[in-house]
Write a structure and sequence with these properties.
mainly alpha
Length: 441
C-alpha cells in the first residue's frame, strides 16, 4: 500500500508533465488502495471502516463545496471588487505584506481554506501576471496555514485537539501566536525579494460581465451580498462552538440562507437575464476536479490510516527518537505529504492526554509531563501539523484550493516556495523552544 501510494503521489506531482489532471491519479490511487486493503487486510469490519473514512472525507468535501459556492457568489455580485478597491499599497512588495497579514489574522477567525479562497479570488482582480499571482497566492497559503495554527477554530486539527481538551484556547493562543507569526514573516520577507519593487498595477477591469460590475450600478446590493457572505462564513465556527456539530452543517445553513436571499434579489431586480445570480447557476462554476481530487486523496489517506500504517509510523517515531521536537518536526514534514488530520488523530490515539498524577507515576515523569493538557507536545503538534502542511502545495486544504483556483504547478511550488516555507517552519519551532526555555528559567 505504501508503494502504491508513492506511485500515485508521483503521478499527482508530475501532473504538468503527464498533462493529466491530478484528480485522475488521486481517484485511481484511492480505489486501488482500498481494494488492496480489502483483499489482504482480512478485516471483517471493512464496510464500517469505509463508511467512517468516507464520512470524515465528505465532511471536508461538503464544506469545501459550500464555502466555494459562497465565495463565488460574493464575487459574482461584485463583492470582492469592493474589497479590492479598499486595499491600497504603494508597491507590489507592500501589497504582499498587506495580503499576508490579512490572511494570517483572517484565517484564525474563519479557517485556512475559506480564507485562501477569498484572498486568492481577490488576487485575480489585482495582478495580471500569472507567475506573480502564483507567488502571492503561495504566500497567502503560508499565512493562512500559520494563522490557523494558533487559533482553536483556525484549522481542523486545532479544532480536534481543542474539542478533546488536549489544548485550551487561551494557552494555545499565548504559546503559538508569536511562533506562527515568525513562520510567516520570514518567508514573506524572502518572497518580496523575488517581486519587483514596481507600483501596484491598475485593477483588472477587463471582465465586462454585469455581475462583476454590479457594484457600479447597485453598490448597496453588492455590499449587502458581501456582508451576508462573510457573515455566513463567520457563522460556521460560532455554530460549531455552540452546537458542537461539524462545520459542514453550519456552512450548509449559511448557503441555504444566501440561496433564499439571492433568489429574492434576482426576482426583485430582474437580474436573471443579465447575470447568473442564482446559487443554482453559480454552483456550475465550482471547480469539480479540485473537489474530486480532494475526495480521492483523503480517501487514499483514509485507507492508510485504517490499515494501521500511520499508527505504526507514529509508534516508530516515538521508539526511535523519544524527543518531542524531533517527533513533531517529522510529523510536520509528513503532513505536507499525507493529510495532517489522520496524522494528528493517530498521535491523539497513541499519546492520550495525561493528568499530572499519571505523569508523575510514569517511568519517565519529566517526559510524560510533556503530554498533559497544554503540554509542550500538544502545542508543538498543533504548530507542526498546521504550518508543516505549507511545505508542499498539496499538503493542506489551503494549498489544494489555491492550486485549483490558480492552477499552480506542483513542481513550481516545490522549486520556488518549499524552501521558503521550510525556513519559516524551522524558525517557528526554534521560537517555541526559546519561549519554553525562557518560561523554565
Amino acid at each position: 500500500m505504501i508503494v502504491l501510494f508513492v506511485i500515485g503521489y508521483i503521478g499527482i506531482a508530475l501532473e504538468h508533465v503527464f498533462h493529466v489532471n491530478k484528480a485522475t491519479f488521486a481517484l485511481i490511487m484511492c480505489g486501488v488502495l482500498w481494494a488492496v486493503y480489502a483483499l489482504c487486510g482480512h478485516d471483517p469490519n471493512l464496510s464500517e471502516d469505509m463508511i467512517v473514512a468516507l464520512g470524515d472525507t465528505c465532511e471536508i468535501v461538503v464544506f469545501l463545496i459550500g464555502a466555494m459556492t459562497i465565495v463565488e457568489l460574493i464575487d459574482r455580485y461584485g463583492g470582492f471588487k469592493i474589497l479590492v478597491h479598499h486595499i491600497s499599497a504603494k508597491s507590489k512588495r507592500g501589497l504582499m505584506w498587506i495580503l499576508a497579514i490579512v490572511a494570517f489574522f483572517l484565517s484564525s477567525i474563519l479557517d485556512n481554506m475559506t480564507t485562501t479562497i477569498i484572498m486568492v479570488m481577490m488576487l485575480r482582480r489585482m495582478l495580471s501576471d500569472r507567475h506573480e499571482r502564483w507567488m502571492f497566492a503561495s504566500v497567502i497559503v503560508l499565512a493562512a496555514n500559520a494563522g490557523g495554527a494558533w487559533s482553536p477554530i483556525g484549522d481542523i486539527t486545532t479544532i480536534m485537539l481543542w474539542m478533546k481538551n488536549y489544548v485550551s484556547s487561551v494557552d494555545l493562543i499565548v504559546n503559538l501566536l508569536i511562533p506562527s507569526l515568525v513562520s510567516v514573516i520570514i518567508p514573506t520577507w524572502i518572497a518580496t525579494r523575488f517581486i519587483k519593487p514596481a507600483p501596484v498595477e491598475a485593477l483588472n477591469e477587463s471582465d465586462q460581465r454585469v455581475g462583476y460590475n454590479l457594484s457600479e450600478h447597485h453598490y448597496g446590493l453588492s455590499v449587502a451580498i458581501l456582508i451576508c457572505g462573510v457573515a455566513g462564513l463567520l457563522f460556521v465556527p460560532i455554530f460549531k462552538a455552540v452546537t458542537h456539530l461539524p462545520p459542514y452543517m453550519g456552512i450548509l445553513i449559511s448557503l441555504g440562507v444566501l440561496w433564499l436571499v439571492t433568489e429574492l434579489i434576482v426576482r426583485h431586480y430582474g437580474l436573471d437575464g443579465k447575470m447568473e445570480g442564482r446559487v443554482s447557476q453559480v454552483v456550475k462554476s465550482i471547480d469539480m476536479s479540485t473537489i474530486l481530487f480532494f475526495l480521492g486523496i483523503l480517501m487514499a489517506v483514509g485507507a492508510l490510516s485504517q490499515a494501521g500504517i500511520l499508527h505504526e509510523l507514529a509508534a516508530w517515531l516515538n521508539e526511535t527518537f523519544h524527543e518531542v521536537y524531533i517527533i513533531n518536526g517529522i510529523i510536520g514534514i509528513l503532513s505536507s505529504i499525507v493529510d495532517n488530520v489522520p496524522l494528528v488523530a493517530a498521535c491523539m490515539n497513541m499519546y492520550p492526554v495525561m493528568t499530572e498524577a499519571t505523569a508523575a507515576a510514569a517511568a519517565d515523569p519529566s517526559y510524560a509531563m510533556l503530554f498533559v493538557e497544554d503540554g509542550l507536545f500538544w502545542h508543538l503538534l498543533t504548530f507542526c501539523a498546521g504550518v508543516g502542511g505549507s511545505l508542499l502545495i498539496i499538503g493542506s486544504a489551503a494549498g489544494v484550493v489555491a492550486m485549483g483556483i490558480e492552477k499552480i504547478s506542483f513542481t513550481w511550488y516545490l522549486k520556488h516556495i518549499t524552501w521558503m516555507a521550510l525556513v519559516g517552519y524551522v524558525a517557528g519551532i526554534a521560537t517555541i523552544a526559546l519561549e519554553t526555555l525562557f518560561i523554565s528559567i
